[in-house]
UniProtKB/TrEMBL annotation:
Keywords: Repeat. This is WW domain-containing protein. Residues 273-326, 330-385 form the FF domain. GO terms for molecular function: RNA polymerase binding; transcription coregulator activity. The gene is PARPA_04784.1 scaffold 15639. Gene3D superfamilies: 2.20.70.10, FF domain. The keyword Repeat applies. One of its GO terms (cellular component) is nucleus. Signal peptide: none annotated. The keyword Repeat applies.
């Protein structure tokens, strides 16, 4: 039993769908458990025969499916399209003209037969008249059969019979035409509502932001990946009402935008995610001091997530000692430069700066002080310090 406010409809192919008269929502999924099996249709409707017509002067076929849908089939490329290609406009008009001529020919034949019958009715006896009526009935049956054969087979030559199986293989599936059926279904619901109430049904208008959010939420729930292909995912998404909240001509662009943004997000997350070794080094930089020992550091920060990021104890200790030795043990550039002055025996009171500079330039510590003025000032301070001793 349907919940209150829901009504059931069917598409031209017999596909059921449900419409909520309160919210205006359409759904391909039954809103509550299915009714008892006895209430369901037990015998499927007999499908009409598919009609194929050769388009004059081309390798294309015009196909009318058993569901009443039209498409065009290219026998060279073995592809089908819904919309008529621009180059088939004139050939299709020629096909329609030939069909009209055939109809006129049959109508004229019918009139001639009727005229002959009327003439014979005047000339023949009642027995002959009954015979002629029987002949007319037979002729009418032949005419109906001929017209059907013309509609089904007109313009199809012998090689079309060989291609018939091929056409069956390329016939549009239910998924391929689901969107068209959905549009037709919604139109049918609107007509039903109009007929019942005399007014156009009012559909709830959601803000554009809400429609886009629900559309993206659907893609997230279906786990659409950054590398997903629209044509592959479309049949899986089209039956969800949220997919139709955005215009049909924007669905593909929004789908591709979602995949692109998702890919960028994943890429950025990979870039921002540090290796366990880097996280551990961050802990060393922020917590280790010059006088700290390994056992003290391990005991104090063993519960820190950055400490646990590196699982091998020996590796932790090695990195700790390396950090203390090469990072915390380094002197400042000024101290290194002053050590150079003290280590150079020729630097004594009375030596001129230009002479001292030539000696000091041979040592790398000389260049740790980038400013030339600072180098000379430190040199003179050092000489003054020596003189005062």
């Amino acid at each position: 039993m349907l919940p209150p406010g829901w009504i059931e409809h069917r598409t031209p192919t017999g596909q059921p769908y449900w419409y909520n008269t309160v919210s205006g929502q359409s759904s391909w999924l039954f809103p509550s458990p299915l009714p008892p099996l006895s209430q369901q249709e037990t015998q499927p409707k007999k499908k009409k025969k598919q009609i194929k017509k050769k388009i004059p002067g081309t390798n294309w076929l015009f196909v009318l499916t058993h569901d009443g849908f039209e498409f065009y089939y290219d026998r060279d490329t073995k592809t089908s399209v819904w919309e008529m290609p621009e180059g088939l406009k004139e050939p299709m008009e020629e096909l329609k003209r030939l069909e009209e001529e055939e109809k006129e020919k049959q109508a004229k034949l019918k009139q001639e037969n009727q005229a002959k019958l009327a003439q014979k009715e005047k000339e023949d006896t009642d027995d002959k008249k009954r015979l002629l009526e029987k002949q007319e009935a037979e002729q009418e049956a032949k005419r109906v059969k001929l017209e059907q054969e013309i509609v089904d087979e007109k313009g199809c030559n012998s090689d079309e019979h060989a291609a018939e199986n091929e056409l069956e293989a390329t016939e549009m599936t239910e998924e391929d035409i689901m969107w068209q059926l959905q549009q037709m279904a919604e139109a049918e619901v609107e007509e039903t509502q109009t007929a019942q109430t005399g007014e156009e049904p009012k559909k709830p208008e959601l803000p554009e932001e809400e429609c886009l959010w629900q559309f993206n939420q659907l893609l997230a729930e279906r786990n659409v990946s950054p590398f997903a292909v629209y044509s592959v995912e479309y049949p899986k998404l089209m039956t969800d009402p949220r997919f139709s909240l955005v215009p049909h001509n924007k669905q593909k662009a929004l789908f591709n935008k979602y995949c692109h943004e998702l890919g960028e997000k994943v890429k950025n997350e990979k870039k921002s995610k540090k290796k366990p070794e880097d996280e551990y080094k961050d802990l060393l930089v922020s917590k280790v001091t010059q006088k700290m020992y390994w056992d003290d550091f391990r005991r104090k920060y063993k519960d820190d997530p950055r400490f646990k990021a590196l699982t091998v104890t020996k590796e932790r200790e090695a990195l700790f000692k390396d950090h203390v030795k090469h990072h915390l043990g380094k002197k400042r550039p000024k101290d290194e430069y002053m050590d150079l002055l003290r280590d150079t025996k020729d630097i004594r009171p009375g030596i001129r700066w230009r002479d001292a500079k030539k000696i000091l330039e041979n040592d790398d510590r000389y260049y740790l002080i980038e400013s030339k003025t600072d180098r000379e000032d430190l040199f003179r301070d050092y000489l003054q310090e020596m003189s005062s001793k």
